[in-house]
Recover the amino acids of this structure.
């Protein structure tokens, strides 16, 4: 890595055009300026100046070094300005959540972005474990999750509950379900299906279902696109489980049946970001806006 002090001295020398005047400007001696240039030449392995009498010209390598020194100075200036700016309406904020939550929240985030076009708000639909790891590793700024394995790693804001729905084709419209009923049509799996099913079976209050395990079911299909998961269910090709928001926004909802359990199964939703991380203004704005969308429901 090139010494920043040598670079700065060299840049000033090129702009002033004279060793003595450069020394005066930098409060150095003339031999000190010459020494900085010589050390820079040694570090890069090329002569930077062609000296004659009391003047000099830049070599080709010297011209490239001067351009590099200017770029470094500009980058430092831009960084300092950006750190001072900290605008709530400029910059990127990355969020991940379940596909069902994305269906509800993404249009609202677009409304915020429409008001502040210099905000970038990419949203990723992902399973719970991927969201948590992404937030912890710094790839994501925020995540909306239902379970948190190591809460000490995150700052957590409760958002309310999401209801899980066991979604059936109309051929299974009945009260009281058994393993055989469900396995006959098979499971339309998705990234969160097994976790959701096991939670649902253990909490729904149905004696026929509480001992079931998602691993035991025949898989009649798999889909990781939230808009398409319910298509095969609507055609009678399987059952699945999703948050209620996914059904409400689905074009196939008229061809679906939601099973009514003895006890509704609700999962707590939380907005998380990495613990002990100081949030810039734009991320505080997005955090507060997301919380508002759920609290107002």
């Amino acid at each position: 890595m090139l010494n920043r002090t040598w670079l700065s001295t060299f840049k000033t020398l090129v702009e002033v055009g004279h060793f003595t005047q450069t020394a005066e400007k930098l409060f150095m001696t003339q031999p000190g300026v010459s020494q900085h240039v010589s050390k820079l030449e040694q570090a890069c392995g090329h002569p930077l100046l062609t000296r004659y009498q009391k003047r000099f010209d830049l070599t080709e390598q010297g011209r490239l070094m001067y351009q590099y020194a200017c770029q470094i100075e500009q980058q430092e200036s831009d960084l300092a300005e950006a750190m001072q700016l900290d605008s709530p309406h400029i910059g990127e904020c990355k969020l991940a959540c379940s596909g069902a939550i994305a269906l509800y929240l993404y249009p609202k985030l677009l409304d915020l972005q429409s008001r502040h076009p210099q905000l970038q708000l990419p949203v990723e639909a992902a399973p719970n474990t991927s969201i948590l790891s992404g937030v912890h590793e710094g790839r994501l700024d925020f995540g909306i999750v239902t379970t948190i394995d190591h809460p000490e790693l995150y700052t957590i804001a409760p958002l309310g509950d999401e209801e899980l729905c066991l979604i059936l084709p109309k051929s299974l419209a009945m009260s009281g379900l058994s393993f055989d009923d469900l396995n006959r049509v098979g499971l339309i799996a998705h990234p969160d299906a097994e976790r959701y099913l096991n939670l649902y079976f253990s909490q729904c209050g149905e004696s026929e279902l509480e001992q079931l395990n998602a691993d035991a079911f025949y898989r009649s299909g798999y889909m990781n696109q939230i808009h398409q998961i319910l298509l095969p269910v609507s055609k009678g090709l399987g059952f699945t489980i999703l948050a209620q928001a996914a059904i409400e926004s689905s074009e196939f909802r008229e061809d679906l049946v939601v099973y009514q359990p003895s006890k509704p199964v609700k999962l707590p939703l939380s907005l998380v970001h990495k613990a002990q991380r100081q949030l810039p203004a734009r991320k505080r704005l997005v955090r507060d806006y997301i919380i508002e969308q759920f609290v107002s429901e």
